[in-house]
Each structure stands twice: as C-alpha cells, then as structure tokens.
Amino acid sequence: MTIPFAPFEWMLALRYLRARRRESFISIISGFSLVGIMLGVATLIIVMSVMNGFRIELLDRILGLNGHIMVYGVTGQQLNRFDEKADRVRALDGVIRVAPFVEGQVLASANSVQTGVLVKGMRQADLKDLSVVSNNILRGDLARLDDETGIAIGTRLSALLRVSVGDRVTLMSPQGAVTPFGVTPRVKAYPVVAIFEIGMSEYDSSYIFMPLEESQLYFNKGDGVTALEVMLDDPDAAPRFRSQIQAAIGEPIIVLDWQVTNSTFFNALEVERNVMFLILTLIILVAALNIVSGLIMLVKDKGQDIAVLRTMGATRGAIMRIFFVTGSAIGLVGTLLGLILGVAFCENIETLRQWLSKLTGTELFSPEVYFLATMPAEMDFNEIMSIVLMALVLSFLATLYPSWRAANLDPVEALRYE
C-alpha cells in the first residue's frame, strides 16, 4: 500500500520548486503567486483590523460620551422630577450610571472667532464619572467647574477660538429672557477652567461642558433637565432595557437606545467592512489562479519526468501528490508570510502612519475626515484564522486540477517522440 506523501514525493515536489535556467519563467509565475497570496492575506488582515479598531474606537467614544440609553420627556417638554426618575432607573440590575443633563446649541465666540457648539450641563460628580472626558484633561481641572461657574472645552475648539485655561468664551443662545418685546438672545461669558481631548475631532471641536445648575438657568429649564443619560454594564442589552425603564418610571417618556440613534452610522460601517472583505478576497483568488497556470506549465514541462516515474512504478496518486505538494507549498509559504506581515503592520500601524506622513509631507488619516486622531487597529484572532484558512483552502483547491492532469498523463504519449 502506498504511504501518502512518501519521502520521494516530498523530495521531487521540493526539487520542482527550485528553478533551473530553462524553467525560470515558471519560477517567476510561482514567485508572483506567492507574493500575491502574501499581499492578499496581509491586506485583508490589515484592513479588517483597522475597520474593527475604527468601529470599536467610535463606539467607545460615542457611547462613552452620550450613554447607552437616553430618557427624554414627551415631545417638546423637559424632564421634571429628574432625580426621582434617575433613582428608579438606577435601581435596575445592569444599570451602572444615570446622569441628568441639559443640552442646547449655542454660538461660541472669542478673539473675533465664532462657531456653533453643543453645550452640555452636568453635575461635577457625573462629569468625573464620564471617563472619556475626565481621563483626558490636557490642561486645567474639572474641580474648578462649579467653583468658578466655568466651562470645559475640547482642544480643537480651544485652538479655533485661540483660548486657553483662564480665558473667557462668550456663549450666545437664541432662547433668552422673555420680555414684552419678545424673546431676547442670552449672551454670557464664561471662564475656561479645563481643556479636554477625547480623540474624536467632532467632539473635541464642538462640545462644551458646564455645571448643571448654570445650564438650567442659561437654557431656561427651571427645575427640569433635557434628559437622563443611562450607562449599562452590557451595551448590547440596551434594547431590552427600554421596556424596563418605561415600567420603572411609570410616566409618559421617550426612551431611545444607542442602536436606534446611531443605526445608520454603524450599519454603513458594517456594510463597508463586508464589501471590503469581498473585494480584497479577489486578490487571493487571483494569486491562486496564478498557481493553477504555473502548475499547468510545470506539468507540461515535466511530461517526460512524469512518464519515466510512471514506467518505474509510481502510481497516479503519487504523481498527483507530488504536484499537490508543489502548489500547496507556494500557498502555505505565501499565507504564513502574509500573516507575519499583516500582524507586524497592525502592531505598528500608528508609527508607520506618522512616518509616512512625514515622508510624504501630507496628513494621512485626517481627524477631520475620519473623526479619530489616531489610526486604530484591533486584531480579532478568529477573523485572522478565518482569513488564513480561506487562503490555504483556495491555494489547495488551485492545485487539484493541475495535479489531476499530471496524474492522468499517458506515459506512452509523453515518450513517443523521444
């Protein structure tokens, strides 16, 4: 009985991989196949990891700043008796934080520069629990927010307005005091007591935090707030918490979870991720087809060798295994090199981005376009293994037809004219 992959089969397969002078063209095709598979696997790992990191970073920042669930009053109304409602929601299992806040859009100006911003009023304790802000204070101190009735602004906004800690920023809201002549805009200057950098350009350039009580006065909320911000220990459980919160409060309210408010954005990311996977898989498929063409040419070139081996007693299975190993070796080596290249690139992607930016003199991965200040890459072990297995399977399948053709070569026809 023939032993699969006998020593002489390995010897011949590896010998055919080494190019001779008259087989140099076949060797070049094999080299291109190997490089193609390597680049295909590496590119897939890099792109999928970057898109994973992009989604995770955006999710962390968006949910870290806005909460997993928002509880609003009925349409057009503020939320009154908010502390009582917050205590009821806080008592639910799985809820880790509930923070009332006041929110409104205003015009911020300083040093003859004006821009629209979103003001969010929160208690100092709640703002300190908001780690995405409190852990990223560049200058100043959040503790001074209540003491000086000041504001905390993002680093990009401070650069735009050309202000630093201690400078004053004027906020103007159209929802001011009601007079016999109508509603007058409210204009008030606040000192900057802290500057934060979340790492997401949209937030760093358009968010301002102020004390809750001051925001209630500024936006004419009285004893009410805009909404309650609810954080859960499991963000994916947000949809089932909506009914629990409705039941706990027991009054007409509007409850929205992050999957509803950001569904379009994250669905677009998921579609883009799947499309990129399909497109980049074609690189590996083309490289696998190169293996087919290279092996067919090798089989044709080695027709005499195959005929001699058959006459010496080599079975069709042995011939098929020889060329199977020859083609599979190209796919295996290319896949392993692609895996190493992809993982190494992902581990050092931010360093490489900065180096390429300096080399080309351009800003790659601009925060204004991609929201994030740094390029993220989050490698998923299962996803990487799926890419590796897919590349190996395509490479192995590419060897089947040339191997079958070699095994069915008629020795008599191959040696007739020799």
Q: Please trace the helix and strand order, writing H or E for each element.
A: HHEHEEHHEHEHEEEEHEHEHEHHHHHHHH
Beta-strand content: 15-25%
The assembly state of the depicted protein chains is single chain
Largest sheet strand order: 2-3-10-5-9-6
Number of H/I helices: 18
Number of strands: 12
List unreliable stretches of 5+ residues: none
Structural class: alpha+beta
Shape: elongated
Number of domains: 2
Largest beta-sheet details? 6 strands, mixed, barrel
Distance between the termini: 32 Å
What is the radius of gyration?
32 Å
Helix content: 55-70%
Quick check: average pLDDT?
81
Features:
18 helices, 12 strands, 58% helix, alpha+beta, 418 residues, 2 domains, two-stranded antiparallel sheet, 18% strand
Account of the protein in words:
There is one protein chain. By secondary structure, this protein is α+β, with helices and mostly antiparallel strands. It has two domains: 7-60 and 265-415, no CATH class; 75-251, no CATH class. Helix content is 58%, strand content 18%. It is built from 18 helices and twelve strands. The chain has helices spanning 7-17, 24-66, 82-90, 124-129, 131-134, 144-147, 155-161, 201-206, 212-218, 238-249, 258-261, 263-301, 303-311, 316-347, 349-360, 367-370, 381-407, 411-415, and strands spanning 69-73, 95-110, 113-122, 137-140, 151-154, 168-173, 178-179, 182-183, 186-196, 207-211, 227-232, 253-257. A hairpin with a 2-residue loop joins strand 7 (178-179) and strand 8 (182-183). The mean pLDDT is 81.
